[in-house]
Design goal:
Blueprint lengths: L3 E4 L2 E3 L5 E7 L8 E7 L6 E7 L4 E3 L7 E6 L4 E6 L8 E8 L6 E3 L3 E5 L2
Parallel strand pairs: 2-11
Antiparallel strand pairs: 1-3, 3-8, 4-5, 4-9, 5-6, 7-8, 9-10, 9-11
């Protein structure tokens, strides 16, 4: 099992930047994948970005070129650098960990990101 705690959300103007962090309760070096998902009001939760234990990454088309996911195995953290933010990026962002290919998902409690002028 793993507990995940997100931080770094807040209010930012369009075009601004935010950096989200996810702290894990155990070593993440062997965790199959870790990712960031988001859920806007009235919408389904969607994958934003994911990073695998070998370093491979996936991004939603809507954030490619603007968001960057990274993991620091020494600090047991996964971060999401978000640049050129748009109002449509407004959502609750959740950290997710999948311990193995067939394993269950673990989720953090979420952090609110609001992009508004």
């Amino acid at each position: 099992q793993v507990q995940l705690v997100e931080s770094g959300g807040g209010l930012v103007q369009p075009g601004g930047s935010l950096r989200l962090s996810c702290a894990a309760s155990r070593s993440i070096s062997s965790i199959y994948s870790m990712g960031w998902h988001r859920q806007a009001p009235g919408k389904q939760r969607e994958l934003v970005a994911r990073i695998f234990s070998g370093g491979h990454t996936n991004y939603a088309d809507s954030v490619k070129g603007r968001f960057t996911i990274s993991r620091d195995n020494a600090k047991n953290t996964v971060s999401l650098q978000m640049n050129s933010l748009k109002p449509e990026d407004t959502a609750v962002y959740y950290c997710q960990a999948k311990l193995g290919f067939f394993a269950d998902d673990y989720w953090g409690q979420g952090t609110q990101v609001t992009v508004s002028s």
